Amino acid sequence: MSKTPAFPLVLAAVVALTAGCSESTSDDPGSNGSTGLTRAARGSTPAPHLPGDVFDESQPTIANLDPELLDAVQAAAEDARADGVHLVITSGWRSREHQQRLFDEAVAEHGSEEEALRYVSTPDTSAHVTGDAVDIGPKEADEWLIEHGAAYGLCQIFANEIWHFELATTPGEECPPMYPDSSYRG
Ligand SMILES: [Zn+2]
């Protein structure tokens, strides 16, 4: 086995080349990925998750979400994709330290804690810190989720944050009235 070290490298190169050709030239869905060789090559090099991919549970911001919330977001993302809309989690679970930093930045930006609370919660009140909230993007994904989210129990919570969703209703029921901004929830 150790006498032919070059052979596996050559084989790997051929496999990679074949897979590359197949993926870049095949427009026929019937033949795309239908050979065992292509499937094997794909299996050994899975496509990397993009940042914020709702199925990438290697990211703490996604893995530390409430499992029920994550299930709902993943189910919604699959259905949104069928409509040509790609849901991305721009921010999910946050550590207390991260939330404090965001709050401190908001105080600096808006001039007072009172004003900052309209945009960012403290570590004690943020649903992101408990894993019970997700921020979704881009804008067309927010609009899709505002229209369809209640079917999964997902609701916009604050009128001034179209990207922030939480489990807030029984799937299929209506969402509760929104708070004008996060300072109203306290
Ligand atoms: Zn949020």
Written account of the structure:
Helix content is 42%, strand content 8%. The chain is of the alpha+beta class. The protein has helices at 6-25, 36-44, 60-63, 67-82, 96-110, 113-116, 139-148, and strands spanning 88-91, 134-137, 154-156, 164-167. α1 packs across α2 (36-44).
Secondary-structure blueprint of this entry?
Layout: H1 6-25, H2 36-44, H3 60-63, H4 67-82, E1 88-91, H5 96-110, H6 113-116, E2 134-137, H7 139-148, E3 154-156, E4 164-167
Antiparallel strand pairs: 1-2, 2-4, 3-4
Helix pairs in contact: 1-2
The structure holds zinc ion (ZN).
Helix content: 40-55%
Number of strands: 4
State Rg. 22 Å
What structural class is derived from the secondary structure elements? alpha+beta
Give the helices and strands as they follow along the chain.
HHHHEHHEHEE
How many domains is the backbone divided into?
A: 2
Which outline best applies? Answer: globular
- What is the spatial order of strands in the main beta sheet? 1-2-4-3
Q: Which spans of ≥5 residues are poorly predicted at pLDDT below 50? A: 1-43
Major sheet details = 4 strands, antiparallel
Task: Supply the CATH class of the largest domain.
Answer: Alpha Beta
CATH topology type of the largest domain:
Muramoyl-pentapeptide Carboxypeptidase, domain 2
